[in-house]
Design a protein that fits this description.
Blueprint: E1 3-6, E2 9-16, E3 21-25, H1 36-42, E4 47-51, H2 68-81, E5 87-92, H3 94-105, E6 110-116, H4 124-140, H5 143-150, H6 157-162, H7 164-174, H8 181-193, E7 207-212, H9 220-229, E8 233-238, H10 245-248, H11 250-263
Parallel strand pairs: 3-4, 3-5, 5-6, 6-7, 7-8
Antiparallel strand pairs: 1-2, 2-4
Helix pairs in contact: 2-3, 4-5, 4-8, 5-7
């Protein structure tokens, strides 16, 4: 895969298709492969771009403090390097927090926002869940243990009990040893420190908010905070789903995403 230099860091990315650009930003536990189904579905009609955040996947991994604003500026640098002008920005979990900073710092780059299981600020429950997942990794020093203790936070009870093979695949993804534990720890802290609540009224871009009704990480409380403060937003709840509603109800998610992109 190609890489682009942004400041001191190399960002690994995919750039496929032609048309209106759609930039996908993955979450704390993932890498660009989190967007593979969406990239495949949309590349015949859009220019679709996904990448590994600094500290994840095949991008530069360094043991150093980081913020969601830092990662937003990385994304802006990537867009500029790839000559991407106004684009739809689709962020998942931490990726949505990053997208909010992009909309605040460079509104000229944002045609619309799509925030999936995301937050402008974590509520106490979400902060506790992230804190606990980070502590497991720090205490055990083992990605497999971290995955085993974390996976139930990402899906609903019904999905966990029903889709055993898929749960095993999720654990393998979360437990990948390709990432420096320190990078996860710093980005976990970045999520807990992220707070753009008081600035959401400044964001004028059309915004689609999607959330799982049973999500403990980015809960309905977090979702309501964004819905109430983003002036040009629409909210879709996925009943019976949790943080990974994109996987739990993939057909509804793709329908909502494709309809949004077509209209905007």
């Amino acid at each position: 895969m190609p890489r682009v230099q942004v400041g001191r860091y190399e960002l690994n990315y995919l750039d496929e298709g032609q048309g209106t650009p759609v930039v996908f930003i993955h979450g704390l536990a993932g890498d660009l492969s989190a967007w593979t189904p969406q990239m495949q579905a949309l590349k015949s009609r859009y220019r679709v771009i996904s990448f590994d955040n600094r500290g994840a996947g095949k991008s530069t991994q360094i043991n150093e403090p980081i913020s969601t604003r830092d990662m937003a500026r990385d994304t802006i640098g990537l867009m500029e390097a790839l000559d991407v002008g106004r684009a739809h920005i689709v962020g998942r979990s931490m990726g949505g927090a990053i997208a909010l900073h992009i909309a605040l710092e460079r509104p000229d780059l944002v045609g619309s926002l799509v925030l999936c299981a995301s937050f402008a600020k974590l509520d106490p429950l979400g902060a506790r869940v992230l804190h606990n997942m980070r502590e497991v990794l720090e205490w055990r020093g083992n990605w497999a243990d971290h995955a085993r203790h974390s996976v139930q936070n990402f899906v609903s009870a019904a999905y966990f009990n029903r889709e055993r093979e898929q749960i095993a695949r999720i654990e393998q993804l979360i437990g990948s040893e390709a990432r420096l534990p320190a990078c996860y720890v710093w980005q976990n802290w970045a999520c807990q420190e992220h707070d753009t609540l008081n600035r959401l009224s400044e964001i004028k871009a059309p915004t689609l908010i999607m959330a799982g009704a049973q999500d403990p990480i980015c809960s309905p409380t977090c979702t309501a905070w964004m819905s109430e403060r983003l002036p040009n937003s629409r909210t879709v709840m996925f009943e019976g789903c949790s943080h990974f509603f994109l996987m739990e109800d993939a057909l509804k998610f793709m329908s909502e995403l494709e309809s949004w992109l077509a209209v905007h």
